[in-house]
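The freezer alarm interrupted the setup, so I double-checked each line after restarting. Inputs confirmed:
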Amino acid sequence: DFPAGDEGYHTYDEMVAELRAAADEHAEIASLSSVGSSYEGRDMPIVKISDNAATDEDEPEVLFTCTMHAREHLTTEMCLRIVNRFTDGYGSDETVTGFVDTREIWVIPSQNPDGAEFDISGGEYQGWRKNRQPNEDGSVGTDLNRNFSYKWGCCGGSSGTPSAETYRGASAASAPEVTNVQNWVNSRVVGGEQQITAHIDFHTFSELVLWPFGHTNDQVTEGMTEEEYARFEDVGTRMAESNGYTPGQSSSLYITDGDINDWMWGTHKVLSFCFEMYPASGGIDGFYPPDEEIGPQTARNDAAVDILLTNAG
Ligand code: 0X9
Ligand code: CA
Ligand code: CA
Ligand code: CA
Ligand code: ZN
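Predicted 3D structure, all chains:
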């Protein structure tokens, strides 16, 4: 469980219960399913929110993903806020109702349920980042945000040492959690066309809005034209103006290879962003803001989420 005083954060079981309740209470506009199981066998839920949720309609599809890194618990709360805002607000909030009627919103609140549960084991924060899959050398964990299949391990933006915090895994998508997310996104190619048009993967921390590519410092390169880059910069800058984060290309932070955003764009041409949430700076404590911050720091991204939904059209 979360340490005393931080009970406002959702454990895995509490997260699942919250998603079930949202789907039960709003059956017409919310449906709960799964992208698969984690290494340790936990279900990885996905929620779809749209009018006529049970029907695959011809509406732009938008994906929000959270908690790729175990200790980034604030992001689970971000995805839960998205679920609750677009279900509870339907019919009363005009903006929410408009998006639910014209978009298909998909939310995966935890991409790393094993790591997140391990991070709060014993009622103390463990400072854990990776998943909980054992490695050949006896160490544990793959960095899921280095394990995606686009240019995996290409560019010095990940580690080949299993015990390292940025271990890329034994092969691309060797982590079941990554395979599950990739397979689900691949499954949204319908009639030869990817249905997902826009995506945010929420992380903590540093208050940044980041866009591809992460594997190179070049703006324009194989897989990214000048016009495409300009679109990322335009939407990214406007989202950052709305929440007060700093916008930039991912690689301006540091080079990564195998991250989800490079894969989403490089493989599927999805307008894909990485948000680094509150706080702006800090040490290991930066991953553990008090639960009093959940409300303000998730609401802070409402306008950015709406900007993405608008631009998914
Ligand atoms: O390193 C990561 O995976 C992300 N930062 S975190 O502190 N949440 O671990 C940033 C990924 C964005 N991509 C690049 N910076 N290239
Ligand atoms: Ca508290
Ligand atoms: Ca619909
Ligand atoms: Ca559809
Ligand atoms: Zn992260």
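Quick read of the result. Residues 5-6, 290-292 surround calcium ion (ligand 2) (CB under 6 Å).
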